[in-house]
Amino acid sequence: MIKYVSTKGGVAPVAFDDAVLSGFAADGGLFVPDSIPTLSSEQLQQWSGLSFPDLAFELMSLFIDRSIIPAADLKKLIDDSYSAFECADVVDLVPLGGDDRLVIMELFHGPTLSFKDVAMGFLINVLDYLLEKRGERLSIVLATTGDTGPAAAWASVGKKTIDCWPLFPRGMITGEQERQMTTLNAGNVHPVGVENCANGGDDLDFVVAKLFENRDLKEKLNLSSVNSINWCRVMVQSVHYFYGYYRTVESVGDEIVFSVPSGAFGNLFGGYLARSMGLPVKSFICANNVNQALHTVFSSGVFAKKTLVPTLSSAIDIVVPYNFWRYLYFASHCDSEKLNRWMREFQQHEALKLDPDTLRAVQEGYQSVSVSDPQTVQTIRDTFDHNRGYLLDPHTAVAVAAANLLKDALPDHINIVCLATAHPAKFPEIIHRCLGVDSALPQGATHPSLEQASKVCQHLRLCDLSTLESALPHAMEMQSRGY
Ligand SMILES: Cc1ncc(COP(=O)(O)O)c(C=O)c1O
Question: What is the pLDDT of the chain when averaged over all its residues?
């Protein structure tokens, strides 16, 4: 049976259901499988024609024991999770006309128009399934930089076992993203707009982590998290790398490159998992904006917390990419003691310098770039002009800009798949600005679901960051008592 251990090594191994229901491990570490399954080349070949849901079924079956979720139930959970997607096969691949090496992998065809839907719907369905079996309820608290919150809120609507509390940094996400959370009119979804988050989503991550450290509170409120600290999220995020690979390469076994707009390293960790399982990925391009914590660590070995700079690609305005700890754990050969030492050092000094051996291991198969706002704007404009009006959202534009900067250094027979992580309609003002103040917004920058949400009253709680840590548990208790 596959077991899950904490990256900090301080808890006994647990089964999949316990890892997923608790979110964080009790020692504050992140859950990882005790070993990563590897695929034979025959298996890799056999799965090449599978649909996205069938591929997800095969891959998830490697991480979830049948005694916890029997095959028929797993299949139904997967099918239900993708039934609301607008694209027939969940994910679409679009070659960029101007450059035959670049392919856009559109991951934003789910109900809230970002790649978060790809894994979140499944995670919430799995939580609901496990909780119903146990006769329990959970309160999920999550921090969002604009896309995780809507995905979790949408997936939670009507789930009798779940109360969903998305926390968002007020004024630092778009109005469209805010309304996706605040217009659902569901009794179990409780969005909280948090004022004065100088460090954006990182401030909220910090408060969420503190709530989880308080074990009494965690038990009393039955708390869990669906941020990508939850193993299930990163596990499902490995599927789109396989799918994108199969739909792009000429023959299975060819190498590929993925360019990934990165914030907390959750999506890239899914890629790491896929490659560790045997997917032939030559390299991942870690595409940062000017909040370049990941680019700095990949290029210099220094992992440091810097002041947040608000950018056009706001969902990746992250200063502490918490999933990087998960990657460091594997890059240091699963050495929990080392990881604990590094985490303590980081907590004390807000920085740490990796030793040369670890840095070499970390860099293997990764390239990184930091993309500025002017480069993002130019990329949106150029892509629109040279691809018959094809629109990139600002995050996808960061990935495309990074791919353009690095492609000449890559062998020219290798395709570069750029992950399109959000629909441009979530960022109409930015698109408008990129295309010029006089032009009308193209149809691709609108979406009926967002137009509908703009006509409905919003329902949310407001709170200042300075009081969130005490005010949130109070609000949760009052809610659970029916006030
Ligand atoms: C649109 C978009 N792109 C990219 C990312 C970055 O993903 P990750 O935090 O997993 O690196 C996010 C995450 O918030 C996002 O919403």
Answer: 95
DSSP string, 94-144: EE-TT-TTEEEEE---STTSBTHHHHHHHHHHHHHHHHHHHT--EEEEEE-
Instruction: Compute the distance between CA of residue 238 and CA of residue 52 in angstroms, rounded to an integer.
Output: 12
Q: Pocket residues for ligand 1 (CB within 6 Å)?
A: 114, 145-148, 228, 261-268, 315-316, 395, 421-422
Query: Sign of the C-alpha dihedral, residues 348, 351, 355, 359?
Result: positive
DSSP character for 414? S
Report the residue among 108, 109, 147, 427 best suited for mutation to probe ligand 1: largest number of ligand atoms under 8 A from its CB. 147
> Rounded CA gap, 80 and 56, in Å?
12
How far is 301 from 357, CA to CA, in rounded Å?
Answer: 10
pLDDT digits (tens, 9 = 90+) for 407-434: 999 998 999 999 999 999 999 999 999 9
CA distance 25 to 10: 9
Contacts of 269 (CB under 8 A, 6+ apart): 228, 234, 237, 323, 326, 327
* Residue from 235, 237, 278 nearest 256 by CA: 278
Task: Give CB contacts under 8 A, 24+ apart, made by 77-86.
Answer: 77/122, 77/125, 77/126, 77/129, 78/53, 78/122, 79/53, 80/121, 80/125, 81/121, 81/122, 81/125, 82/52, 82/53, 82/56, 82/121, 84/110, 84/111, 84/121, 85/109, 85/110, 85/111, 85/117, 86/110
Half-sphere exposure of 24 (CA within 13 A, CB side): 25
Closest CA to 368 of 288, 254, 314: 288
- 3-state SS of 449-481? HHHHHCCCCCCCEEEEHHHHHHHHHHHHHHHHC
CA–centroid distance, residue 317 to ligand 1 (Å): 9
Would you say residue 439 has pLDDT above 80?
Answer: no
Whether the Cβ atoms of residue 26 and residue 34 lie closer than 8 Å to each other: no
Cβ contact 6:30 at 8 Å: yes
Residue 40 CA to ligand 1 centre (angstroms)? 31
Domains and CATH numbers, the chain: 92-113+237-445 (3.40.50.1100), 116-233+447-483 (3.40.50.1100)
User: What is the rounded distance in angstroms from the CA atom of residue 408 to the CA atom of residue 259?
Assistant: 14
Question: Rounded distance, CA 18 to CA 393, Å?
Answer: 37
Residue located nearest, by CA, to atom 13 of ligand 1: 315
Q: What are the tens digits of pLDDT across the range 263-282? A: 999 999 999 999 999 999 99
